[in-house]
Write a structure and sequence with these properties.
The structure is a single chain. This protein has 162 residues and is mainly α. The protein has one domain. 42% of the residues lie in helices and 0% in strands. It is built from six helices and no strands. The relative contact order is 0.10.
């Protein structure tokens, strides 16, 4: 194909692209699976808007300060919201039916928690981590506050930390 044909066809291509809808979602909010509990740890509007900040704060308390609580932990979110379907199968993170993927795909937001952490509830998965927890790990080493003790890392990796 000659360069002249490509250049001549550009206005037609551009017009076609502009005619496409900006969103394939016709304005409908995604259908998010309900959790198994009676209520979430925060009101729905707070969780939808601030869940990333809550998870980061939880991470900082856990890894930097050694404070482990369940209220805003990723494991607790998964435990409640990632449940088997009618056939007993659990959606994985690459499925649009996974609780986290539902909104992140809709909003076109990269979801990188599960590059290291499991996308399954801990009750369905022996280890919630896909990487070895060490002070040398790039992710953990970048946290410059109080260093995490070897004992704490071992306890976390073995599922003994509460």
């Amino acid at each position: 194909m000659s360069i002249r044909r490509v250049v001549a066809g550009l206005p037609l291509i551009m017009a076609g692209l502009l005619a496409l809808p900006l969103s394939t979602h016709a304005g409908d909010a995604p259908q998010v699976a309900k959790g198994k509990g009676d209520a979430c740890v925060e009101p729905t509007d707070v969780i939808r808007k601030n869940h990333m900040d809550l998870l980061k704060h939880q991470r900082d308390d856990t890894l930097r300060r050694g404070i482990r609580t369940k209220k805003h932990s990723l494991n607790e979110c998964l435990e409640c919201h990632v449940q088997p379907d009618e056939s007993g199968k659990v959606a994985r993170i690459d499925s649009p039916k996974h609780f986290c993927s539902t909104c992140h795909t809709y909003a076109a937001v990269k979801l990188d928690c599960f590059e290291c952490h499991s996308d399954l509830p801990k009750s369905m998965n022996k280890s919630a981590y896909k990487h070895k927890l060490t002070p040398d790990n790039k992710h953990h080493a970048s946290m410059q506050s109080a260093p995490v003790s070897r004992q704490m890392l071992d306890a976390i990796a073995n599922g003994e930390a509460k």
